[in-house]
Specification:
The complex is a heterodimer of chains A (340) and B (397). Chain A is mainly alpha-helical. Chain A has one domain: Orthogonal Bundle (ABC transporter involved in vitamin B12 uptake, BtuC), CATH 1.10.3470. Chain A has 14 helices and four strands. In chain A, the strands form two sheets. A two-stranded antiparallel sheet of chain A has the order 1-2. In chain A, strands 3-4 form a two-stranded antiparallel ribbon. In chain A, helix 5 packs antiparallel against helix 10, helix 7 runs antiparallel to helix 10 and helix 11 (262-277) crosses helix 12. With 397 residues, chain B is mainly α. In chain B, the strands form three sheets. Chain B has a two-stranded antiparallel sheet. A two-stranded antiparallel sheet of chain B has the order 2-3. In chain B, helix 3 packs across helix 13 (298-315) and helix 5 (95-117) runs antiparallel to helix 11. Chain B is globular and about 65 Å long. Chain B starts with 5 loop residues before the first helix and ends with a helix. Classes of the chains: A mainly alpha (340), B mainly alpha (397).
Chain lengths: 340, 397
């Protein structure tokens, strides 16, 4: 029983990453009708926003402390981060400690801008072209973005720790009288994902802007005929989708040290998630994300692995193939979207 | 000739000449000159040109003719390689046993994968093929280790059966005694030309499959595939079922990929799972698009282009750049080198990505279309000069 709950928890935190990326992907697809292969690269850029912020906060100057000596007997050079000298040592130290959560604020404007530039600069010109062309050009863009990141940050993963207060483990089973120990940060990640997903849904459901966007997803031309500049709103939605993927990346850095090809690794899986959930369906993406995450972690249990060897490696693809063949629209896909 | 029309015959002859004289054509610079690093006439690279050429020709039969974009063709490449290495392990190093088996196994897998994947089209087809390829890749790495040797890669060990191995037989891949790795070097003045057995073997195979692809393109079957691409609904309305045709195209292109994988293992008796990764499938997509989708010669050009520049660009470093731009004033020289630096050496993929995007955006027909446009432009310029001179004599309306 404990093991089962632990696997569900494991699945939830992987599933939240899938769900967040897939949400952005399907948002772009549902609004603009573009298949965006560069979405994984956006996830990666988000992760590197966190890396950059923690590097900036760690920028420091050297002073010579005459009271201390190093092992050669010379006066010791002490490195003091600028933030510590500006805000005092305690606030400075905690700023550095909380670099990853702080990066959320730092990354939102960056990701919005990245999304806006991408849409206006490149993807705008591909609305009228075939899906194959869209896949190809965004695939090229993904290569370019990841090579740029590689140029500036190198090819090795960069460790970016979570704040000390959130880096331990907690006994989450205590509430139910069970003994389940789980890393705190992964619980934080799941809650964060839940908040973001709720925010996106309520934004679309309860604001006028969201209403117009939903109307545009249903029938773009009619909304245009009503005198609403739907293109502009869709561009903003692209920015929001980029921000969602970026935030997923920011918060993922402590779980998995970011490297330049993490985006590609996630992209393939999130595409499978989107297709399973149904192209253009937001609830479908979230549902499929969590479902596949949990299935994957169940499949990696030893009991199941000994039953069907190798199932943990292929479970997601097997599910995707079965669903695509039996329910071509995906779990919650709308009728008439991408059906040939 | 051989059932080809005049235009195709001349194309075929040009390709035959290019491949047969490649060791000369690709080696235009003397050995000791500063430009020698641009020579591509060494066996390893030339073999890769033709092998990836075969891979791309096959991919083009599916994508170029039917428009189905597969992101999983690398799986067949890996399957082909594994089959050939297994034949080395069980029989002996003669490639004649392995290659037909590679084509056959790749074909069987292609029937299975294609039968399932082709039930969907468009993006769903791409995702399905991608899923199958990733599945094969993951399995090859983990559970199938007894067959694929996992991360180490499959290779021949001393205690393998090799039942047909004779006493004096070569211990590297060969074709009835013609050892693939052996080369004949010809020195002419300052030039050195290398004629490699393996290259010529691959080149002959490529010419054969290139001829086959011309025949497929020009056949009624090829016409049906084009019909699938242009409008599948209309094809169904005329009472024809498109699926057998697309499946046949998928299987043929899978067999091409298997053959390419088998040839890779014939040049170097190794097979690794990383050949099946989806980035490898992406590479063949890049080659085909860059060269020109749906054209005969395009994929071969694209494969050669990418492999050549991959090798050359990744070899250039800052010292070489400084040599080139040494005629510039010092400050300017450093600035130019600084600007070019991210695009060379390890940054070659950045150049490739940008180039690929530019091609997709501005030149959807790839290098072939670029060539045609330049050709037309030259022609029309010649014509417009004529018409200009003509216009002066004609009265204006």
């Amino acid at each position: 029983m404990d093991a089962l709950i632990l696997q569900i928890l494991n699945g939830l935190d992987k599933g939240s990453a899938y769900a967040l990326i897939a949400l952005g992907l399907t948002l772009i697809f549902g609004t603009l009708g573009v298949v965006n292969f560069a979405h994984g690269a956006i996830f990666m850029i988000g992760a590197f926003c966190a890396v950059t912020l923690s590097k900036i906060l760690n920028l420091s100057y050297e002073t010579i402390d005459p009271n201390q000596t190093d092992f050669l007997g010379n006066p010791l050079k002490v490195k003091t981060p600028y933030v510590e000298s500006w805000f005092g040592p305690e606030i400075g130290a905690s700023l550095i400690d909380w670099a990853v959560p702080l990066a959320i604020i730092f990354s939102i404007p960056i990701m919005l801008a990245v999304g806006y530039i991408m849409e206006r600069g490149l993807i705008k010109h591909f609305y009228k072209r075939e899906h194959a062309d869209q896949i190809l050009v965004t695939f090229g863009l993904a290569i370019v973005l990841q090579e740029i990141i590689k140029y500036f940050y190198g090819a090795n993963p960069i460790q970016t720790p979570s704040p000390d207060a959130l880096s331990g483990v907690a006994n989450v089973g205590a509430v139910f009288g069970m003994d389940i120990v789980y890393p705190v940060w992964r619980i934080v990640y799941f809650c964060f994902a839940a908040v973001i997903i709720a925010a996106v849904f309520s934004f679309l459901q309860f604001t006028t802007f969201g209403m117009v966007v939903r109307a545009g997803m249903a029938d773009r031309e009619t909304v245009g005929l009503l005198g609403i500049d739907i293109d502009r709103r869709f561009t903003i939605m692209f920015g929001i989708a980029a921000a969602v993927a970026g935030l997923a990346g920011v918060m993922y850095t402590p779980i998995n040290s970011p490297n330049y090809h993490m985006g590609m690794d996630f992209l393939v899986l999130s595409f499978v998630v989107v297709v399973v959930g149904g192209m253009g369906s937001l609830p479908g993406a979230v549902l499929a994300g969590f479902m596949l995450g949990i299935l994957e972690s169940f499949a990696s249990m030893n009991a199941i692995k000994s039953l069907i060897p190798g199932i943990d490696q292929i479970i997601i693809y097997v599910v995707a193939i079965i669903i695509l063949l039996t329910r071509p629209r995906g779990l919650m896909g709308r009728k008439g979207v991408m059906e040939e | 000739m051989l059932g080809l029309n005049k235009k195709d015959t001349s194309l075929m002859i040009v390709v035959i000449i290019l491949t047969m004289f490649a060791p000369f054509i690709l080696n235009p610079f003397p050995v000791d000159s500063a430009m020698a690093q641009f020579n591509a006439g060494y066996p390893d690279l030339m073999q890769r040109f033709v092998i990836f050429g075969i891979f791309a020709i096959g991919f083009n039969i599916l994508f170029g003719l039917t428009g189905y974009l597969s992101f999983g063709h690398a799986a067949f490449l890996g399957i082909g390689s594994y089959s050939v290495v297994w034949m080395y392990k069980l029989l002996d190093y003669n490639v004649i046993y392995g290659l037909p088996l590679a084509v056959l196994t790749a074909g069987i897998f292609a029937v299975a994968i294609g039968y399932v994947s082709l039930r969907r089209s468009g993006i769903y087809f791409s995702i399905l093929t991608l899923a199958f390829a990733q599945m094969s890749f993951n399995l090859a790495y983990s559970v199938l280790t007894p067959i694929t040797n996992g991360e180490t890669g499959l290779q021949v060990y001393n205690n393998d059966p090799q039942v047909l191995l004779g006493a004096n037989e070569a211990t590297s891949p060969h074709l009835f005694g013609i050892v693939m790795n052996n080369s004949f070097k010809l020195d002419v003045g300052a030039w050195q030309f290398t004629f490699n057995n393996g290259y010529y073997f691959c080149a002959l195979v490529m010419l054969l499959v290139f001829y086959l692809s011309i025949r497929i393109f020009r056949s009624p079957f090829g016409l049906m595939l084009r019909a699938v691409k242009s409008n599948q609904n209309r094809l169904s309305y005329t009472g024809l079922n498109p699926r057998p045709y697309t499946l046949a195209a998928f299987v043929i292109s899978g067999m091409y990929a298997g053959l390419a994988g088998g040839l890779m293992a014939s040049m170097d008796p190794l097979a690794g799972a990383e050949r099946m990764q989806w980035t490898a499938s992406g590479e063949v997509v890049l080659m085909t698009i860059l060269g020109g989708t749906g054209t005969l010669i395009g994929p071969v050009l694209g494969a050669g282009f990418i492999k050549y520049f991959e090798n050359i660009f990744s070899k250039i470093n800052d010292t070489i750049l400084h040599q080139w731009f040494s005629f510039l004033p010092d400050g300017l020289e450093d600035a130019v080198v600084f600007i070019i630096h991210p695009f060379i050496g390890k940054g070659w993929h950045l150049t490739l990505g940008i180039l690929f995007m530019l091609v997709v955006i501005f030149l959807p027909g790839g290098l072939v279309e670029g060539g045609q446009r330049i050709g037309k432009w030259i022609k029309s310029r010649g014509k417009s000069e004529d018409s200009d001179s003509g216009a002066t004599t004609e009265p204006a309306e």
